[in-house]
Amino acid sequence: MSTWVVVLIVVAVIALIIWGIVSMVSVLQEYERGVVFRLGRVRGRAKGPGLIILLPFGIDRMRKVTIQTVAMNVPPQDVITKDNVTMRVDAVVYAKVVDPVPAVVKVQNYLFAVSQSAQTNLKGILGKYDLDAMLSDRESINRELHGIIARVTHDWGVEVLSVELKDVDLPDELRRAMAREAEADREARALMISADAERRASRLLSDAAAILSQNPQAMQIRFLQTVTAVATEQNSTLVMPIPIELLSLIGRSSGGDSGNGRPVAPPPPTVPPSSSQGPQGSQGPEEGRPPDHGNGRPA
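^ thats the sequence. predicted structure below, dont judge the formating
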């Protein structure tokens, strides 16, 4: 009986030695660091990467911390903007551990703490902006969020690389209102462009009319060119009930010469004959009296 007891004791000691040796050796990857606690106290700086030797039987305990960049999704938050618009906004935070000791000692779960800090600051910062600024100026909002969250997490040994707004969920009524506003704005711009084009076209037509009015034959040539263009495009025969010569008569009646297309100079004013007196003085009574037609009186 005593022999079996001795054998069991020897086996137990050997197993304990093997377990102690195995627990003394730990390997850390390149992206990992180890914070070693000896009897509950931190042993200096973080260890790793590579082979780490620890004291067995629970004297040294090591907690692994990854130093890789972590992308944390911030859950959607109900935000009220400065102009009293309610929406749901979510974001993404990129962070990594730069000092493993405070990340383990000063905060219980640094990833959860960074996420909570991002959620609370997201509501506070977005409440200072109106809807238009939030949709158009995301870069400044991202920089402000990054600065505030980075100051909070600096004491935890966590570096926030960037914070970005990912999605802005607007209510359906607001989306329809914005669509109507954008459509009205586009229609107003189209009307302004059309009115400006009409104004320029009217100026050009006025200049062309002024040039054609100076030469009536140019109007006839333009008329013939228009008739030719219409006959070519439509492939039809045109019958003109008004002869071309009538245009010449219209031009002549308006003061122009149909022969050369130049306006005819107005005739010189007629000078009435002068009623100057002769050398004998004024006319006698016989000259101004009407003739006597058979009244029986001597002339």
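Residues 256-266, 273-299 have pLDDT under 50 and may be disordered.
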